[in-house]
Amino acid sequence: MTVGIVSYGLYLPEDIESAEQIAARYRLTVEELRALGIKQRYLPSDKDQPVVMAEKAAQKAFASAGDVDPMDVDVVIWTGEEYKDYIAQTPSIRLQEETGCKNAWAFDLVGQSVTLIQGIKLARDLITGDEGIRTVLLAGGTRNIDLVTSDNPGTRFLLPCSASGGALILRRGHGRNTLIDTAFLVHPEMADEVYVPGGGTEIPFSRENLNTGIMFFQNRHPEKVADYLRRKWAATLCETVGRLQNTPEIGYLALRHLSPADREKVLGTLELAPHQSADLESFGHHGTNDPLISLDLGLERKAVQNGTVVAMLNGGIGFTYAAASIRWG
């Protein structure tokens, strides 16, 4: 059974912060930021909340979806970040209301940076396993930029974090942009290495700990994480792509934001030329939305054409990895 991407939508905030501005604010050099892959990043305004940005991206997806109406959607899945507008909110249901998908069932996924690709797999499985499900909307927003500080050198690799909304519409029998396969990989021994300590049941927010380091990403064992990133980060991204089944030669890699050094490692290992994957140095890291931004750039630059096999590739803290192969056009 064929499942294809009908359309996608992206929303980016209006405000941009340059490497020079970031360097001045965080007392870093421009060279240090460039080594992290930062030329600029997108800053959210007070109005750019994760669910709001996801809804704007979803509206763009519907605008370019042709004959797909919100009332046709059978399932709405939140594929954004865990950090969102409100604690204990079900953002998929709010998205359902805001987009007019009144006939849908809605629920949330949480997978750090790989949630969109998780959603693609789940949408395909729902569509192929349930005759009552034909059309699925995936949408999510991120502003994890709020959770990153340069005060902790162990989490400096998270400084590229930006803000955005992204959405995909998938449909049974859609003969274009067809899904081939998905693959996933996790390293559970790294599960508790990078996280935000405050705000959960273990360390609830209180008058005494507000505006302290517990509100930001922390790294329990900086040397362990640095060693992991050096030895396994790029290699595991490549390994995840290698797990894709029945996938012809990849023509374009819709790759997450990486440092220039790691990007070179990944492209070199996969034997892809630089033009076969857009770097995101002028966009920053948008978590789950990175592959969508890269895909959009590939289409804009005509690196993705009719028949191109696209591999979407992402990874995030946890540490977790995901890939999806799609025949575009």
Protein architecture, described:
- There is one protein chain.
- The protein is α/β, with parallel strands linked by helices.
- The protein has 2 domains: 3-175, Thiolase/Chalcone synthase (Peroxisomal Thiolase, Chain A, domain 1, 3-Layer(aba) Sandwich); 180-327, Peroxisomal Thiolase, Chain A, domain 1, CATH 3.40.47.10.
- Helix content is 29%, strand content 23%.
- It has helices at residues 19-26, 30-35, 50-63, 91-99, 115-129, 222-242, 260-269, 290-300, and strands at 3-11, 15-18, 40-43, 75-78, 105-108, 135-142, 164-172, 178-186, 194-195, 218-219, 252-255, 309-316, 320-327.
- A 5-stranded mixed β-sheet has the order 1-7-6-4-5, sandwiched between helices. The protein has a 4-stranded mixed β-sheet with strand order 8-13-12-11, sandwiched between helices. It has a two-stranded antiparallel sheet with strand order 2-3.
- α3 (50-63) packs across α4.
- The chain is globular and about 50 Å long.
- The two termini are 17 Å apart.
- The mean pLDDT is 96.
What topology does this entry show?
Elements: E1 3-11, E2 15-18, H1 19-26, H2 30-35, E3 40-43, H3 50-63, E4 75-78, H4 91-99, E5 105-108, H5 115-129, E6 135-142, E7 164-172, E8 178-186, E9 194-195, E10 218-219, H6 222-242, E11 252-255, H7 260-269, H8 290-300, E12 309-316, E13 320-327
Parallel strand pairs: 4-5, 4-6, 11-12
Antiparallel strand pairs: 1-7, 2-3, 6-7, 8-13, 9-10, 12-13
Helix pairs in contact: 3-4, 6-7
